[in-house]
């Protein structure tokens, strides 16, 4: 299945709409069992996601392909090899599917060549099948893909944040044979949040969020299904990362993933997605939320 299990909630209290806090270890086990049953075989994690790697490692991960991220190397005192060794130990794995730099700035900075060489060494040693980077902007992705031979890139993509589609960067990455993982399909839950709970910060896009909710109501589907329909419609995306707090949430996502499939079979629905694109990056980039505008 194209869905990929996000694990940030397993180690941290994460998400603008998250009211249930960090997921318990027992619930993580239930989530993994459900994922396996439904042929979701990819997991996304990171060394900076609190206890996420350790909690995942307490479970049998033989049925899963895990992608993890090294911390921002500007502040990390160790090497890529040391970060990989730590992750493998916590995950109780001999190797991982993907090794990503958590910050594109690492590869674009003065130490970029050195850091890339360290990641490549991990790949050549068989500790990671693929190497790549997690990015935040099309310009960042374009620069890195031009400079380095990467296998994998993770980027934000949702019905409000269509920057990678509109810029042509998504198409370019796919054309280079780079595997694309899309995160932030629900924009940290903002797309699923009732309008009456919307924080004042997001009032500049209140109108477009209201239209989004009107549209899913007209279609007689959930906001979850419509949000998933957009990312599922992007044929150049190889995996869609979805974070959950419970097995019940994953069950709901799996169901709505099938609803989304039916939605995008309607050409009229696909043609309407563009109208929901938000150009103000401070609204769609969580790293900029609540920063001075």
TrEMBL record:
Gene3D superfamilies from the UniProt entry: NADP-dependent oxidoreductase domain
Lineage summary: Bacteria, Pseudomonadati, Pseudomonadota, Gammaproteobacteria, Cellvibrionales
Pfam families, alphabetized: Aldo_ket_red
CDD domains: AKR_unchar (cd19097)
Source organism of the structure: Dasania phycosphaerae
Domain NADP-dependent oxidoreductase: from-to ranges: 2-257
InterPro entries linked to this entry: AKR2_Oxidoreductase, NAD(P)_OxRdtase_dom_sf, NADP_OxRdtase_dom
Name of the protein described by the UniProt record: Aldo/keto reductase
Signal sequence, start to end: none
